[in-house]
Design a protein that fits this description.
Helix 2 links the parallel strand 2 and strand 3. The protein has a 5-stranded mixed beta sheet with strand order 1-3-2-4-5, with helices on both faces. The protein has 108 residues and is of the alpha/beta class. Helix content is 32%, strand content 27%.
């Protein structure tokens, strides 16, 4: 899996203002459920279309960015959480055991 580390507000603002479909994965490095969700995504990486962008946010380190995601796309903060966004629109949002690659790739 080719994760793009999400660590700056500038990155987040670019994602929000561009009209490109990207995936945002909010991962709690202290949570076993979050680790299982991440492993599950990585196990099914063969389902990811070429060129799809997957951003990885360590929400323990970058809690303010996690909060900004909730604000910008008007979703309740959860962990783990995955969003598929296109500019200012959230196309798909799932958390915990509902995070499935087969579901989110429908939007890519």
């Amino acid at each position: 899996m080719n994760w793009i580390t999400l660590s700056t507000l500038d990155q987040l603002n670019t994602i929000y203002t561009e009209n490109e479909i990207v995936v945002l994965f909010k991962h709690s490095t202290r949570c076993p459920v979050s680790s299982m969700a991440k492993r599950s995504l990585e196990f099914e990486k063969k389902l990811v279309p070429a060129g799809a962008k997957f951003y990885y946010l360590d929400l323990i380190t970058y809690r303010s960015l996690s909060n900004k995601i909730a604000e910008l796309w008007e979703v309740q903060h959860e962990s783990p959480q995955i969003l598929v966004v296109k500019g200012k629109t959230c196309l798909y949002n799932a958390s915990h055991q509902e995070i499935e690659m087969s579901e989110l790739t429908k939007f890519l």
